[in-house]
Amino acid sequence: MTALILASTSPYRKQLLSRLALPFETHAPEVDEAHLEGESPTNRAHRLALEKARAVAGMHPDAVVIGADQVAACGDQILDKPGNAQRAREQLEALSARTAFFYTACAVLGGNRAVRLAHLDTTRVVFRALSQVEIERYVARERPFDCAGGFRAEALGISLFESIESRDPTALIGLPLVWLAAALRAAGFLLP
Fold it and tell me: What is the pLDDT of residue 47?
């Protein structure tokens, strides 16, 4: 059986991939995620997903490797992981009553280069008008410092939205499982 490796240290991606009930390992891809001058959010997401998959596939050429990345944007502003409460509050203030787009890229590489698949899912999130008190209360309760945009859609963060439009609800959390399941079937994995 071909080894399956998730090129990520994200607990959210690990939890999502576990839903497919396939044995897999995780490896840190050790990729510089810095934004490149003039790079669009979609290009950044694609580039980083491929770089992560390539980095780990280079160390494990017989394995099938999954790389993923998500870039969030609201207007011209890129929404990186806030890292602390103040920045999470600032991001949510900027998102109040606005629309943000979350570009989630996924690449599947490996099997001695026999598999090369890539995908980009776009999720449109419309935020409701958020009061300062709601933002403070949300950030204090959920502490979403490691999530782009400063919220967790799979938890209490869902209460911040007016609507979500996506072909794959798992893409907003960081790994588009609908596409990934099809890609893994194409790579020879049995699902279900």
Answer: 96
